[in-house]
Amino acid sequence: MLHSRRYAIQKQVGDRVRSAVHQATITLLLKRDHPIHLATITMGAFPDTPDWSNLSVLHRNTLPPRANFKIYTSESDALSRDESKARVQSLAGTWKFHLANSPFEAPEGFEAADFDKSQWSDIPVPGMWQLQGFGKGPVYTNVAFPIFVDPPHAPFDDNECGSYITSFSVPKHLEDDQLRLRFEGVDSAYHIWVNGSLVGYHQGSRNPAEFDVTEHVKLGEENVLAVRVYQYCDATYIEDQDQWRMSGIFRDVFLLGFPETTHFQDFSVQTIFDDAYENAKLEVQVDVEGEGTVSLKLYDADLKQVVEESRAAGKGEAVKFSVPVSSPHKWTAETPYLYHLTLSLGNNQVVSHRVGFRQVELKEGLIKVNGKRIVIKGANRHEHHPVHGRTVPYEFMKQDLLLMKTHNINAIRSCHQPSDPRLYDLADEMGFWVMVRAFHD
After folding, report:
1. Which CATH architecture has domain 263-359?
2. Where are the CATH 2.60.120.260 domain residues in the chain?
3. Cross-strand pairs, 344
4. 260 φ, ψ (degrees, to nearest 5)
5. Terminal alpha carbon distance of the chain
6. How far from the centroid of its chain's Cα atoms is residue 379's Cα?
7. In this predicted model, what pLDDT tens digit does every residue of 2-11 receive, in sequence order?
8. With a threshold of 0.85, does the pTM exceed it?
9. What is the predicted pLDDT for the residue at 216?
10. How much is the CA Rg of the chain, to the nearest whole Å?
């Protein structure tokens, strides 16, 4: 009876919202414990179907996905791997926060630069609001969904909505750059505004998203960043797993600087051995916006240079390197030897990445690495902390892996969704095979 009643409410709300025109005022049926009552809302903030319940919308105005890297101004800074020396500003810290029971009850106009948020609560970002004193839960479910099941529609009632506000100014060393906002992880979907202008939308809670905000940002002034996070969206149906259900901006948020006219867009690295697994080729492809010269250098673990090459980057063309490396140290879970790769573009743009020489193949029904059979002794790993949920501190993550290593675990299965990008760096460094499971249940 309860499900039938909820379905009738959900369907009536959904039908009315989906048929509403922009800026129309509708009457929304909202369920409370007792009784059911009416609330009038204005649909000015949403199109006919909200993005978070629209199968045709995954993103709005997000930049193409890319490798995880930050740009430095010198090779020495890039090799230090110290992000405080990169063209980046962390926006982690204390933000202002308001929680509503549904997106339709969230405060209107909160994205405006002059919106009065003085009565709002403080909240640490990154974090998950159910573990920060807000909302209902956290809730644990396995095969049961935490919402009334009506795919592909997300609930219009009992869909908590967190509104976040912070401010930032652009550092001097980024003022001439293309400016990007990067969210490493938000559960489950969100819109962002800068200085009152809608920038974009993203869903895919464990995937990072990047937005070009250059045209929205004011130099030499405080800028207001507003983010509206929806507890559930249509993607909830495919992100559903046996896990604690929590919401919020749970990974880092960065302001990134990319040189305006010419900059790195993306790069990929592959190591390929000869038939004897003695010598190898370092295959690197670099995508560049604009034109210039890309220089590649490879250093060993002691930062002694091994190879160096340069290639011209033509407009719209990928730069490809195939560099021979004689008798490289081989990476395995038992011998996690890492080289240091740097890529330079012009005189003030450098990215770095650690590289292990390994070649994974399926031969004779066996998984072989560098031509040899390996034995996988692995464990499932959910991204979870007992106090902070999916906001896992770096040192805790590292201790987690050290504990695995001391018990002879050499492989990690990342459960269902991508982990914090820092996990993969630690796995390279400490010696873990990582199985990134594609969702297909």
Report:
1. Sandwich (2.60)
2. 88-259
3. 295, 350
4. -60, -50
5. 30
6. 23
7. 444 444 444 4
8. yes
9. 98
10. 24
